[in-house]
Design brief:
Helices cover about 45% and strands about 15% of the residues. The N and C termini lie far apart (about 65 Å). The model is unreliable at about 140-150, about 160-195 and about 300-310 (pLDDT under 50). It has about 425 residues and is α/β, with parallel strands linked by helices. The relative contact order is 0.09. The protein is flat, with a radius of gyration of 25 Å. It has 17 helices and 10 strands. The chain has 2 domains: about 5-140 and about 190-195, Rossmann fold (3-Layer(aba) Sandwich); about 225-414, no CATH class. The strands form 2 sheets. The chain has a 5-stranded parallel beta sheet, sandwiched between helices. The chain has a 5-stranded mixed beta sheet with strand order 6-10-7-8-9, with helices on both faces.
């Protein structure tokens, strides 16, 4: 039996009352944290069953289709399989959810712009569904508010936004009085045109278009050889190589005269426009420089998914692990050193750790004896949770992959 805390019990009670009052008004629940979404999912599933659609950082093509069919009023093929959507801020931009008439902010983000983005999902100028839209906010208790100050911080920031840009909706309080702004005329544009979709959303939508217009192509993908090489016309001479064995690695090279080339790192987002082409685009013959540069790229084993910022979560975790592995108090760290090396190997070569785990590693401290002791205790906890040899399973799985998957796209300037 799944127990509910008072906040979740209150949420469920309000949802039941609202569905009883207006069964046709779909509801969206937003949380900033994936862990919260995963916590709420089984509790809501127990009450609302198959009427619940959950998206917790796993927006697959199947879920994207369900999201569009059940919550986008402009989607051609509409369904009524779901009446309740539970989601993280992954879909707080770039999606139409206007078949829902209520947004529930289970938590208030530190950045109040997120609240506006959430509300923007159901308040679409292009397609009006409801005359009134409801916004429900959960705030900490007075005791909790003293600790996190989230309501005060978010309200103060929202006040600044109101007075700078102007808003026509009450978001936090029923007595909230937004004022007109000097920039009012400049921002009275269709918000659909102002919003920027995330790359992940753009790529998924593009995949759905291809799937709809060329279903035969999608069905034959699993029959493609493990190594694909193709050349096409472009504005510069370069080679992009995608390598996947466990995780995805991407690297490129620009061609010069003779055998000159320049290796560079690139993200998939940056490569997207470079590799995209129309269905009628004619393939070209592989150039004479292709194989030489191709082998140079393959032989460079320090593949990374684009440049890693010094401030990135992954890089912070890497830096911390190296600090502990080579810590001056070697005797105290000795018992967990092998495990620390395994974590480091995972991050650099396999990428199986979640952001939550990476954040725990990045937060480890060793500046004082007390901090070192606390961090070693956290490392032991991680070791017990993951298992002392957890990475061996991933290594064994990858050994069973008969071949690496390599896709090489050569752009040629003609």
């Amino acid at each position: 039996m799944i127990e509910n805390d008072p906040k979740t019990a209150c949420l469920i009670q309000n949802l039941k009352s609202q569905f009883k009052k207006e069964p046709n008004r779909k509801i969206v629940i937003f949380s900033e944290y994936l862990d919260t979404v995963k916590y709420l999912e089984p509790r809501l599933k127990k009450v609302f069953g198959d009427k619940l659609l959950t998206i917790a950082g796993d927006l697959t093509a199947h879920k994207l289709s369900a999201l569009n069919q059940d919550f986008d009023a402009s989607f051609a093929k509409q369904e009524n399989n779901f009446s309740l959507l539970l989601a993280s801020d992954k879909i707080s931009e770039g999606f139409n959810l206007n078949r829902a008439g209520m947004i529930i902010n289970y938590d208030i983000p530190w950045n109040p712009v997120r609240v506006i983005q959430r509300v923007g999902r159901i308040n679409r100028i292009s397609k009006k569904v409801f005359d009134e839209l409801y916004i429900v906010n959960f705030f900490p208790t007075e005791r909790g508010a003293e600790l996190v100050k989230s309501r005060e911080i978010a309200s103060n920031k929202m006040f600044l936004i109101h007075n700078t840009l102007g808003e026509d909706a009450k978001i936090f309080d029923i007595d909230e009085e937004p004022t007109a702004a000097k920039l009012y005329d400049r921002i009275q544009q269709n918000p659909d045109k102002l919003e920027e979709e995330s790359f992940y959303t753009i790529a998924l939508k593009e995949f759905e278009k291809i799937k709809e217009s060329h279903p035969d192509l999608i069905s034959t993908l699993d029959k493609f050889p493990p190594r694909v090489k193709v050349a096409k016309k472009s504005s510069e001479n370069e080679l992009l190589v995608f390598l996947k064995k466990g995780r995805l690695y991407l690297r490129g090279a620009r061609y010069g005269e003779n055998k000159k080339y320049e290796l560079f790192q690139i993200t998939f987002e940056e490569a997207f426009e470079k590799i995209a082409c129309e269905p009628k685009t004619k393939p070209l013959e592989i150039s004479e420089k292709f194989w030489y540069v191709y082998e140079k790229i393959k032989s460079f084993r320090d593949y990374r998914v684009g440049p890693v910022s010094e401030q990135s979560l992954e890089q912070q975790a890497i830096n911390n692990l190296r600090t502990f592995i080579y810590h001056k108090h070697e005797d105290e760290v000795l018992q967990v050193k092998d495990f620390l090396k395994m974590l480091l190997e995972d991050i650099t070569d396999y990428g199986t750790l979640s952001d939550y785990t990476l954040r725990r590693i990045a937060n480890l401290e060793s500046g004082t004896e007390e901090k070192l002791k606390k961090s070693l205790k956290e490392i032991e906890t991680l070791k017990n949770e993951l298992g002392a040899d957890y990475l061996e399973k991933e290594k064994a799985r990858q050994k069973n992959l008969s071949e690496e998957i390599i896709v090489a796209v050569e752009n040629q300037k003609l």
